[in-house]
Amino acid sequence: MKLDPAIRDQVLATVPSLRAFAISLCGHVDRADDLVQETLLRALAHIDSFQPGTNMPAWLFTILRNLFRSEYRKRRREVEDADGRYAETLKSHPEQTGRVEFSEFREALAKLPSDQREALILVGASGFSYEEAAGICGCAVGTIKSRVNRARTRLADLLAIDNVDDFGPDRATRAVLAGSGRN
Amino acid sequence: MDAPAIQPKREVRLGREVQARIGQQLRSLYDDVVKEGVPEHISALVRRLSEQDDGAA
Q: Distance from first CA to last CA of chain A, Å, rounded?
């Protein structure tokens, strides 16, 4: 039996976001792409357990997260200092994870405990509801809410945002203005 | 007599504005990857697997 093209298209439509999530978990594009590939192999081999009409992104994100977690447990010794290493990975591959003006934000994000980072990304970037994020992470909705809150507080702390003007586009704009003589 | 010191209250709770800025940065970072779309090797993989018979998978 061949895969229903509609289901296949739903899978493909989820891939870009799935990759962004994988990169945020691994901090490394190559590993993230392996993880996405492995997720898709597993998902398509078990496509019968997906109920058409239910949430395809949540289903794929759950598989990816579980794969990442079990791989992570296997490598625990190697990545004992997971957060520190994650930060190092990002520093050594800045070109792989995006634009230069985000480097400060990216570093702060890398310093979060992984469960907080994951919750923040699912809710704040992937666009899942708290309920969906709880389903993906296999925890209570309240746990997700508190992780997201702690993540935001910690980020604000790390970025030393006392003043909105200290953060974000304004700072980037100032940097551009400061260098405007050369352009 | 001295005027009473003004209490900074920003420590207590993150302002909406700050939260909005954090959200904005997070989404920009994420969307940079999303905009890359589906890498060729991944779409090829999905197409190949979806054409396969059950037994072969």
A: 59
Would an 8 Å CB–CB cutoff place B16 in contact with chain A? no
The pTM assigned to this predicted structure is: 0.76
Query: How far apart, in Å, are the Cα atoms of A50 and each of A53, A54, A88, A109, A134?
Result: 9, 8, 37, 32, 18
Tell me if A152 and B24 make a contact (CB, 8 A cut-off): no
Residues in chain B: 57
Q: Taking chain A (183 residues) in consecutive chunks of 10 residues, what is each chunk's mean pLDDT? A: 87 96 87 94 94 93 94 63 56 49 82 94 96 97 97 89 50 49 39
d(CA A119, CA A171): 27
Residue A106 pLDDT? 86
**Amino acid symbol at A30:** D
Domains of chain A, first to last: 1-80 (1.10.1740.10), 82-183 (1.10.10.10)
d(Cα A64, Cα A59) in Å, to the nearest integer?
9
Which ipTM value was assigned to this complex? 0.73
Amino acid at A159: L
Q: Are A9 and B46 in contact, with CB atoms under 8 Å apart?
A: no
Contacts of A136 (CB under 8 A, 6+ apart): A58, A61, A62, A65, A122, A128
CB A9 within 8 A of CB B38: no
Residues 18-57 of B with CB under 8 A from A: 18-19, 21-39, 41-43, 45-47, 49-54, 57
